[in-house]
Write a structure and sequence with these properties.
The chain is α/β, with parallel strands linked by helices and 448 residues long. It has 12 helices and 16 strands. Helix content is 34%, strand content 26%. The strands form 3 sheets. It has a 6-stranded mixed beta sheet with strand order 3-4-2-1-5-6. Strands 8-16-15-10-13-12 form a 6-stranded mixed beta sheet, covered by helices on one side. Strands 7-9-14-11 form a 4-stranded antiparallel beta sheet.
């Protein structure tokens, strides 16, 4: 035997729920046993929808106009009902215009009470039917329970998602506009990879751990060197010595294996990055050096034994130069707008930040690889820091950046001890040179 139920719809079923055709009627436990569900629209519901259809273009107004069109078609149709779902369960929609609220059943000043009055009247006229009230509003539910009108609460899964507020709509519009703008900008995909080419979120390994000398330590060592020679023209020599002492901690690390970080970057946007600037930044005790394989002269300079420049001999003109002078100027050569160049130039010693620039970083040409060697300014056995990769461009509103964590085991070297040894060796050499010069001068006078 076919089981049927008659449901008088509250207005909110049209305004707040999914389309009738989209509702899973079996998801409501109270309706799961029925083969046929007959939906009835009372005159009070029709009147409420009529009033709401003239609202603006918000969701409530749009839903009211759509519901009004459905009901209007039913009223004007020769068919008494509209098929919402053909089977399992069969669902139909019809209007119950002739039903009037039971006199005296409720105070009919509100539309909700009028609907409940219609439900009561229909039940009285059709005692063999299972007639109930379908609503999601708590107030009408309470009134129905109080008046003995059977009801079916609308399940929450039938409801539409809450309509965004004005602020939320504005935020969504701005987000959509931002997304549109981003689609006309460079888009970067960045990954830190290990020697096997696998992406890594942490760089591990071991490194010689040497700390830079303090300003006072360097000053004391330079004073010691100054005392070792009587020559007045020693400024260039002392400057060369000071430069080496200030970078002694990295010179020590030059001669050991260092972790290498490879950064793969692709411009996956729809346009080149204009006037692009890349910054690779070491945070914490992390310093960054240019890999030795990039410059044979640079590699040779780094691999020389660590020693201070020879002190000036008596009566000799100073001819000392710093490591930078040894290399001479580093010209770019012919500028390639699609190539990357160090800014302002390739650093000789490890630094806290490496910068490269490119006039036109082309898109859609695959990955660009950048490599840096990790140095440290620390004598700790456990070294923690991170490396930041940052991109600026003229057509990129805000810089974008990525990070990788660095966790290294340090093999401590006491830089100050090495510095004292170097200075004392140089002092002894200066004294020996001075004594030799005195003997040479005395021997020359005797010969004359």
């Amino acid at each position: 035997m076919t089981s049927s139920i008659y449901l008088f719809l509250d207005t909110n079923v049209f305004l707040q729920c999914k389309e009738l055709e989209e509702i899973d009627w079996r998801s409501c436990d109270a309706l799961a046993e029925f083969d046929e569900i007959h939906l009835l629209v009372s005159l009070p519901v029709m009147n409420e929808i009529d009033k709401l259809k003239s609202r603006g273009n918000d969701r409530l107004g749009r839903r009211a106009r759509k519901a009004n069109g459905i009901i209007r078609d039913l009223v004007l149709s020769d068919s008494p009902q509209r098929i919402v779902r053909p089977t399992e369960p069969a669902v139909t929609l019809a209007v119950a215009i002739s039903i009037r609220p039971t006199p005296g059943f409720l105070d009919y000043e509100t539309a909700d009470n009028q609907i409940l009055g219609c439900v009561d009247a229909y039940r009285s006229a059709n005692e063999s039917h299972d007639v109930r009230f379908l609503t999601h509003d708590t107030g009408p539910m309470a009134t129905a329970r109080n008046q003995g009108v059977p009801l079916v609460p609308v399940p929450d899964v039938w409801l539409l998602d809450p309509e965004p507020s004005a602020a939320e709509r504005r935020a969504n519009e701005l987000e959509a506009e931002l997304k549109r703008l981003r689609q006309t900008q460079p888009q970067f995909n960045v990954s830190f990879v290990n020697s096997a080419g696998n992406e890594q979120t942490e760089v591990t390994g071991s490194v010689l751990a040497a700390c830079s000398l303090t300003h006072d330590e360097v000053s004391q060592l330079i004073d010691r060197l100054r005392e070792s020679t009587s020559q007045s023209q020693t400024r260039d020599w002392l400057e060369s010595c000071e430069n080496l002492l200030r970078n002694l901690h990295t010179s020590i690390q030059h001669r050991s294996e260092r972790p290498v970080v490879t950064i793969e970057v692709a411009n996956q946007g729809v346009c080149p990055a204009e006037d692009a600037l890349i910054e690779i930044i070491g945070h914490g005790p992390i310093l960054l050096g240019v890999p030795l394989h990039e410059d044979s002269v640079h590699r040779e300079l780094r691999q020389r034994p660590i020693q201070l420049p020879s002190p000036p001999k008596p009566f000799d003109m100073p001819t000392f130069r710093t490591g930078i002078d040894l290399l001479g100027p580093r010209e770019r050569g012919t500028d390639d707008p699609n190539a990357f160049y160090y800014k302002p130039e390739r650093p000789l010693e490890p630094v806290s930040m490496l910068a490269l620039e490119c006039k036109q970083w082309r898109h859609g040409i695959g990955k660009k690889r950048f490599q840096v060697e990790i140095y440290v300014d620390s004598e700790l056995p456990a070294i923690e820091g991170r490396i930041e990769f940052r991109i600026h461009a003229r057509n990129l509103p805000d810089p974008v950046h990525w990070f990788v964590q660095v966790s290294l085991q340090g093999r401590p070297v006491i830089t100050a001890d090495r510095a004292v040894d170097l200075v004392e060796q140089t002092v002894q050499q200066a004294r020996a040179d001075s004594a030799s010069s005195v003997l040479d001068a005395q021997f020359g006078r005797r010969r004359r």
